[in-house]
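Repro:
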Amino acid sequence: MLAKGFDKDIMGFTLDTYWIQNAGGDPEEYLEYLTSRVPVVHLKDMVYQNHEVIMAPVGEGNMNWQRITKACEKAGTKFLLVEQDTCIENPFICLKKSFDNLSCLGYK
């Protein structure tokens, strides 16, 4: 509703990959729909563990990061921010895993 209600030069958006997928959406579709309006994307991955959905380091869950990062590039995203609201291990270990996995995709 906000995307339709405001001119793209007035309102931008910051997307969060985990919460989009958690709500049943597709991060790539949102990025495509909001092309040129998404300067920042929060990267979090999702994994199912013990019948629960939990956050995971980027590249350690079920999201297609090659597809998502390509969609970010097409949308004109300038900043990819790795974050994890909750970690099942030391947060610095999770950050390192995300960094390493994104580095394998060519991001540093």
